[in-house]
Amino acid sequence: MATVTGQKEDPMKLEPEDMKAVVLRMKRAHGHLASVIRMIEEGSDCEAVLTQLAAVNKALSRSSFAIVATGLQQCLANDAGTDAGEVSKMEKLFLSFA
Asked: What is the pLDDT of residues 33-86, one digit of tens each?
């Protein structure tokens, strides 16, 4: 991707438009986590708390994968101008969530 001035855009920059679904998922996870905290404070059943906490964890993991996948797509779309270091960074980030 090139800007109007001809300079290459940062392949690691997240575009807000591309991240709308991820932000929505994370906001839901945020609300869900608040509910889990409330459950703990109210002395809810351990199994119920852990089930809900696992759901929050899964939502956050999926968000992480979506962010890394978007970054990798940007790197691939920019492959002519993306150095191996940027791709390597994205690969390491991806593997950190695996």
From this structure: 999 999 999 999 999 999 999 999 999 999 988 888 887 777 667 665 566 677
Positive or negative torsion for Cα 18, 23, 29, 32 = negative
Which pLDDT belongs to residue 3? 44
Collapse the DSSP code of 8 into the 3-class scheme (helix H, G, I; strand E, B; otherwise coil) and give the result.
strand
- How do the domains of the chain map onto residue ranges? 20-96
Domain at 20-96: CATH architecture: Up-down Bundle (1.20)
The most distant pair of C-alpha atoms in the chain lies apart, rounded to whole Å, by 59
Say if pTM beats, i.e. exceeds, 0.85: no
Nearest CA to 57 out of 49, 45, 46 is that of 49
